[in-house]
């Protein structure tokens, strides 16, 4: 009785302790949330930081970490000074200068175009400081801007002739764990170096439409509370959006990923537009959660597309998409529509649906009737019986008889393989006598095999045929 009472008292103490720890954990903000009591960046401090840069990764960098930077309209005098003096520091000299805003709090809109180097698209400026792919893209951008300028003048949209220009951000941009309380404007900028926004918080709209990222982009665990616009953006190096939180609309339409793109464990709370996007390397969307509609119409996946253990609560539309390598939907949860209508698959490309949760009543899988059934693949029957049965029901309900028949054929082929494995996957040197008899040996033959293998393992046909009880016909 006493021990029971003590145990209950101890249990109660631990319960209270765990509750207190839980409350403390909830009360403490995430480590990447910029605190509200950061020191204010003043004109004097700004001037001092501009004159005494630090070196990060062998690059001189303006260090503005850990400040509250007030760029709101009511602080217009400081805002104008901030852009004017910082732009002069970043563009001074031939060597690139980086900007570090990590762990800071930005109040008001941050306009990165005011900090970028104006690059006239007259074709006379040398591009030797850029890698070859970036040079080619910048040349194409020059021609595009020039043509748009000519069109504007011809239509009298732009009454006075102005020299068309582009914007270059030459040095690394670091904003890890930074909180942006206003919009972030960075459209049409060519970022030549690293963009590091790990665990950054973007409270408003982020506009990076038509931006070019020559270096790696790291937005690991970044949170986007406002809309994110990366329409027609180009990523020349690897990009990381893994574990990101996209709480508003996302626009990647026409975006191009020339290296690996990682969205692993990201959450899309609203619609996501990836139409006409191009993926030259692997596209990793494993363990992502999609609450709204995801459209990837006419997208081009030249390498593997990973949707492993993805949760699709909204529709995912992949109509007219192109796939150069297999798709992986292993363990995915499809609660809405998954549309592969008119998709183009390279020879031998399949869709791994092993372990996929697919409700025949709530979900719908669409595809070209003569093709989609042949693309669905599962390595084994065990654990996939219900899925395959629901897929058959899905295609019959859609009156896609050929697709339903193909899935049924896949089911029977897997069942035959399973039976073959059970029959011929027997290890005669360790199987009990009843298993040997189940495989087709008589009781006498099973006894003879059991006695023979005690002396030496049966490794070849000659070993079996040396047994008096086993003749050639039985072995065959």
How would you summarize this macromolecular structure in one to three sentences?
By secondary structure, this protein is an alpha/beta fold.
Question: What do these coordinates show?
Answer:
Mean pLDDT is 85; it is low at 1-32 and 160-164. The chain folds into 2 domains: 125-418; 426-475, no CATH class. The relative contact order is 0.05. Helix 2 packs parallel to helix 3 (76-91) and helix 6 runs antiparallel to helix 7. By secondary structure, the protein is α/β, with parallel strands linked by helices. It is built from 11 helices and 44 strands. The strands form 4 sheets. The chain has a 13-stranded mixed sheet with strand order 1-2-4-9-13-17-21-25-29-33-37-41-44. Strands 3-5-10-14-18-22-26-30-34-38-42 form an 11-stranded parallel sheet.
């Amino acid at each position: 009785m006493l021990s029971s009472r003590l145990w209950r008292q101890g249990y109660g103490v631990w319960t209270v302790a765990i509750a207190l720890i839980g409350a403390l954990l909830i009360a403490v903000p995430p480590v990447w949330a910029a605190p509200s009591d950061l020191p204010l960046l003043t004109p004097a401090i700004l001037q001092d930081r501009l004159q005494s840069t630090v070196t990060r990764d062998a690059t001189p960098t303006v260090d503005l970490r850990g400040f509250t930077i007030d760029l709101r309209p009511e602080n217009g005098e400081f805002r104008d000074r901030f852009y004017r003096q910082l732009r002069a520091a970043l563009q001074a000299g031939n060597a690139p200068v980086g900007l570090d805003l990590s762990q800071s709090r930005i109040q008001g809109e941050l306009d990165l175009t005011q900090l970028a180097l104006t690059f006239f698209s007259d074709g006379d400026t040398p591009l030797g400081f850029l890698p070859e792919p970036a040079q080619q893209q910048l040349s194409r951008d020059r021609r595009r801007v020039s043509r748009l300028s000519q069109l504007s003048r011809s239509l009298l949209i732009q009454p006075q002739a102005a020299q068309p220009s582009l914007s270059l951000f030459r040095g690394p941009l670091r904003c890890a764990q930074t909180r942006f309380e206003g919009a972030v404007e960075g459209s049409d900028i060519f970022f030549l170096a690293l963009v590091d926004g790990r665990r950054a918080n973007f409270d408003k709209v982020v506009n990076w439409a038509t931006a070019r990222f020559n270096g790696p982009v790291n937005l690991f665990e970044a949170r986007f509370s406002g809309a994110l616009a990366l329409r027609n953006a180009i990523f020349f190096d690897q990009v990381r959006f893994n574990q990101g939180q996209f709480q508003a609309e996302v626009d990647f339409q026409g975006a191009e990923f020339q290296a690996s793109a990682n969205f692993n464990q990201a959450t899309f709370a609203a619609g996501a537009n990836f139409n006409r996007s191009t993926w030259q390397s692997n596209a990793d969307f494993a363990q992502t959660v999609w609450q709204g509609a995801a459209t990837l119409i006419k997208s081009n996946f030249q390498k593997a597309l990973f949707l492993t253990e993805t949760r699709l609560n909204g529709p995912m539309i992949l109509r007219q998409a192109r796939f150069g390598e297999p798709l992986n939907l292993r363990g995915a949860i499809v609660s809405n529509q998954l549309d592969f209508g008119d998709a183009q698959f390279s020879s031998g490309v399949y869709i791994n649906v092993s372990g996929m949760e697919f409700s025949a009543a709530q979900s719908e899988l669409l595809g070209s009737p003569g093709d989609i059934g042949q693309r669905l693949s599962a390595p084994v029957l065990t654990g996939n019986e219900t899925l395959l049965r629901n897929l058959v029901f899905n295609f019959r309900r859609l009156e896609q008889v050929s697709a339903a028949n193909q899935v049924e054929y896949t089911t029977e082929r897997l069942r035959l393989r399973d039976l073959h494995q059970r029959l011929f996957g027997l290890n005669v040197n360790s199987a009990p006598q009843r298993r040997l008899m189940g495989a087709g040996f008589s009781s006498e033959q099973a006894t003879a095999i059991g006695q023979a293998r005690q002396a030496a393992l049966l490794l070849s046909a000659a070993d079996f045929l040396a047994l008096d009880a086993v003749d050639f016909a039985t072995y065959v």
